[in-house]
Amino acid sequence: MARTHGRGGAGIRKTNKKGATKGSGAVRRRGLKGKGPTPKAEDRVYHQKHKAKQRRERSNSGRHEATTELVVGRNPVVECLNAKVPASMLFVVAGTGSDERLTQAVQMANSRGIPITELPRHEMDVKTGNGMHQGIGLQIPPFKYAEVEGLLADVQQRNETGMFVILDNITDPRNLGAVIRSAAAFGGHGVIIPERRSASVTAVAWRTSAGTAAQLPVARATNLTRTVKEFQKNGYQVVGLEAGGEHTLDTYDGGTDPVVIVVGSEGKGISRLVRENCDVLMSIPTVGWVESLNASVAAGAVLSEFARQRRVG
């Protein structure tokens, strides 16, 4: 009979495991550690705020980068082609039912040598972000802006009396397009807009300008106040349009000296620093019950009068 040590075999540990006994490998200890502070919502990839942050970053990174624009819809595309808006590609969805406008768009694109690409509907949906494109889209390249210094030098070389328009706080591209059209019609030499918080030359501005944006230079300025001072150094009178100005369109002579017309928005008007640096503040006489004029209408009225003064002067 086998003999045991101790009482009742208490010194023997029974086990079914073979080999050395292993621990948890510190898994449980690590599991007890805290995971740190909860990340901000915008840093969690699955959160809506993270997606919004990414959209903001993409927008900011491309703010000053030239990007193409896609005009969709049969009427807008035909209008752009009629206005001689520069285009790099006409997209037509495969299987789209043809009508007079689609046929006209294709014919005009062919006559201007614009490439036509047929693509599946789902690709067009992705390009536009929705299905509201009517099976057609016109790709417009970035507008090429001029430099203010180049505009001044060009007028000096031609020995002409310069006439420019500066737009301040104008955010509607239709207003911008209408001002470009008026400036071109009345002998203006260019339009200047700020880089930020301003309408830019988009397809809407192109259409409103009726194609004159292809002929009249548009420049972007990083700082309108510095731009105003630059014009003044070059002998220009800077006239700000503002209700209650010390001059009116009837009393101011804009036909003799080089002139810059500063136009603000109907609501905000001209920015304070720009206003303070204008040589003259001028109003446009209207009947008493009309409070104000649309920015493009005001610019057109002044440009027309200054052009008349130059013709008779």
Automatic annotation (TrEMBL):
Residues 70-146 form the RNA 2-O ribose methyltransferase substrate binding domain. Residues 47-56 have a biased composition (Basic residues). Keywords: Methyltransferase, Transferase. The keyword Methyltransferase applies. Signal peptide: none annotated. Residues 57-67 have a biased composition (Basic and acidic residues). Gene3D superfamilies: 3.30.1330.30, 3.40.1280.10. InterPro entries: Alpha/beta_knot_MTases (IPR029028), Ribosomal_eL30-like_sf (IPR029064), rRNA_MeTrfase_TrmH (IPR004441), SpoU_MeTrfase (IPR001537), SpoU_subst-bd (IPR013123), tRNA_m1G_MTases_N (IPR029026). Residues 1-68 are annotated as: Disordered. Pfam families: SpoU_methylase, SpoU_sub_bind. Belongs to the class IV-like SAM-binding methyltransferase superfamily. RNA methyltransferase TrmH family. This is 23S rRNA (Guanosine(2251)-2'-O)-methyltransferase RlmB. It comes from Corynebacterium propinquum. The gene is rlmB.
